[in-house]
Write a structure and sequence with these properties.
BTB domain-containing protein; alpha+beta; BTB/POZ_dom; SKP1/BTB/POZ_sf
């Protein structure tokens, strides 16, 4: 964002977000500076620029507000974890989270669980190195590290916490930024997702929230098949490194049975590890 305070004197541009067309007014110069795409939308010859209003049907109000927070401050806060009931948390199959309940992050300390199998070798694909012992790290060609990211990462501390809302919020913002050419936000959102995955704790092999992230990442509606996608790459390497947990999950096995690019990518990654 332009450091000059003059941007706050700029005209108000209105975004209508989501199918409900919720109106959100922003300072035109602040948002035009985020990318060439947004600059053309706000200041160019497009119809939206002339009207001072743009309709963004493919982003939710909450996700867009996180983008607003980023545009004004350079960072954004993820949503809190969801909460599961005891029966759902104890079931290793699919579960139904309570969507409207949000929990604070001062949850009771986790109980002792089975130790992770640390025999899995670190996997290196693209920009990420990931192992059960050290977590997901960046290779020499990695994305830039944002200091704000590590300060705002939240970690699950209970089997009752559903991490999917946090995983998906970072993922959606990454894809939103990719679509509109906001490169710094694109990297930041992926970096925050990385940090959340590194801090993820498995409880009784419960990983349906991880599987939900995999499903989202491999949905052709979100990340087109055949593309060199950073989100898929990151999520897949987490799954490979934690295959002793995720690979035994009924939810993940059911997802593999559906076929598609996930099966191909999963097998190629496993094969590469076996051939090392």
């Amino acid at each position: 964002m332009d450091g000059s305070i003059d941007v706050y004197r700029s005209r108000i541009f209105t975004f209508l977000v989501g199918e409900e067309k919720t109106a959100i007014g922003v300072h035109a110069d602040v948002f035009a500076s985020q990318s060439k795409v947004l600059n053309a939308m706000i200041n160019g010859k497009m119809e939206e620029a002339q009207a001072g209003c743009a309709f963004l049907p493919d982003v939710s109000e909450n996700d867009f507000l996180r983008f607003c927070q980023y545009a004004y401050t350079g960072d954004y806060a993820p949503p809190p974890f969801g909460i599961l009931d005891e029966a759902s948390a104890s079931d290793n199959g699919c579960f139904e989270p309570k969507p409207t309940i949000e929990v604070p992050h001062e949850i009771s300390e986790p109980t002792a669980e089975e130790p992770l199998d640390l025999s899995v070798e670190p996997a290196l694909v693209g920009d990420w190195i990931f192992s059960p012992t050290t977590g997901l790290e960046r290779s020499k060609k990695s994305l830039p590290k944002y200091s704000s990211s590590s300060d705002t990462v939240i970690k699950n501390t209970s089997k009752l916490e559903d991490c999917a809302p946090v995983f998906l919020a970072h993922s959606r913002l990454h894809l939103f930024a990719d679509k509109y050419g906001i490169e710094t936000l694109k990297c930041l959102a992926l970096d925050k997702l990385h940090g959340t995955l590194v801090g993820y704790t498995f409880f009784n092999d419960k990983c349906e929230d991880i599987v939900e992230l995999v499903r989202f990442s491999y949905s052709n509606d979100n990340t087109p098949d055949g593309a060199n996608d950073l989100l898929r790459d990151l999520v897949l390497q987490f799954v490979i490194a934690q295959q002793d947990k995720v690979g035994r999950s009924e939810a993940f096995l059911s997802l593999l049975e559906e076929g598609g690019p996930l099966v191909r990518d999963f097998w190629l990654s496993v094969q590469n590890m076996l051939l090392k």
